[in-house]
Amino acid sequence: MIPPLAVGRSITLSMDFEVDVPTTGRAGHALFAYLRGVMALPTVYPLIPVYDDEGWNVEIAPEYSDDVYSDIAAYQVQITAPSAMTLVASGSCVQQAQGTETTVWTCEAAPMRSFVLILGEDFELANRVVNDVVVNSYFYQGHERGGGKALEVAADALAAFSEMFGPYPYAELDVVETPNYLGGMEYPGLVVIEDGLYPGVEGVEWLAAHEVAHQWWFGVVGNDQIDEPWLDEALTQYSTMLYYEQVYGPERAAGILRGEFVQTHQSLVLRGQDMPAGLPASAYGSRLYWQIVYDKGALYFHELRKAVGDESFFEIMQTYYSRHRYKIATPESFLAVIERVTGDQHRDIFDQWIAGSVE
């Protein structure tokens, strides 16, 4: 038996492994696949699970929920890839050697919760600099309109969230068009948007703003996305509304609040399907997961904002972000921040929307 590693000591582990990349079907929403000239490789390596008061978190997430619950790590990755393909990855990558057939890259990503690699055969690139961060939009040839919109939204969202919550900590933010069937997905320093949305642009804005918000809630501030998904998804959903409020004004945000969050919750109540938003992902099923965790959960943050006022609400968000930077947040640690800022956990609001029973 190997003895426990002493405090302050290190160990080197090595492992050889192979993965088969799917080339057909919609399994896993095609987020891990080689389709239409794009190879998407999210967290395809062995990942050490989080060890917490439950022990090692090795449970398999439902297909409709996020599945990466991980601690922060430093990644240094060497990649050999076809020279004809564009490489996009978490962190920053430098070309080391280029040949006729293959190119060698070295990527460094730290501190990040996971590492994702995407290779595309016909990507085009547009970018801009926001707050010293390079925002990149990678999109297919002929999809310039959608790629331009994705870049505009990502840049505006980065600026808005940096002001509201705290600075984005990385040098780059990539938005990548991929052939997935989910709409969008967040990864540290990189988000993907479904390619079917790019020609007509419809849906690109909401998804891009939502996935960029995840850089704060999941990327920097981690949480158990399987057992406590509301901590990132409900807050990210409400943050998306805050993006619209910042960019378009309070009237547009009020329309989203009524049309997206309030009406969804009212429909749940009328159908007799209302549930607390703070349950594990597996408690809901696919459709209810989106409606309860995302939309009903967002109402918790709005009710909290109404109770404490804008000044205290955004102080709560900034304090939560700074105190949990690169750590794992819990419901209790979030409530502790509310109490630190306002002197009261406002547990009644939490119980009503997140933890309480539904009659």
Task: Round the mean pLDDT to the nearest integer and report it.
Answer: 95
Spans of 5+ residues with little confidence (pLDDT < 50)?
Answer: none
Q: How does the major sheet shape up?
A: 5 strands, mixed
SSE run:
EEEEEEEEEEEHEEEHHHHHHH
Amino- and carboxy-terminal Cα gap: 52 Å
Treating each run of at least 4 consecutive H or I residues as one helix, how many helices?
8
| CATH topology tier name of the largest domain | Zincin-like
Structural class: alpha+beta
Task: Count the E strands.
Answer: 14
What would you say this structure looks like, in words?
Helices cover 36% and strands 23% of the residues. It is an alpha+beta fold and 359 residues long. It has 2 domains: 27-213, Zincin-like (2-Layer Sandwich), CATH 3.30.2010.30; 230-355, Orthogonal Bundle (Neutral Protease, domain 2). Strands 10-11-12-14-13 form a 5-stranded mixed β-sheet, covered by helices on one side. It is globular, with a radius of gyration of 21 Å. The protein starts with 32 loop residues before the first strand and ends with a helix. The mean pLDDT is 95.
Looking at this protein, list some descriptive labels.
alpha+beta, 14 strands, five-stranded mixed sheet, 36% helix, Neutral Protease, domain 2, four-stranded antiparallel sheet, globular, 2 domains, 359 residues, Zincin-like, 8 helices
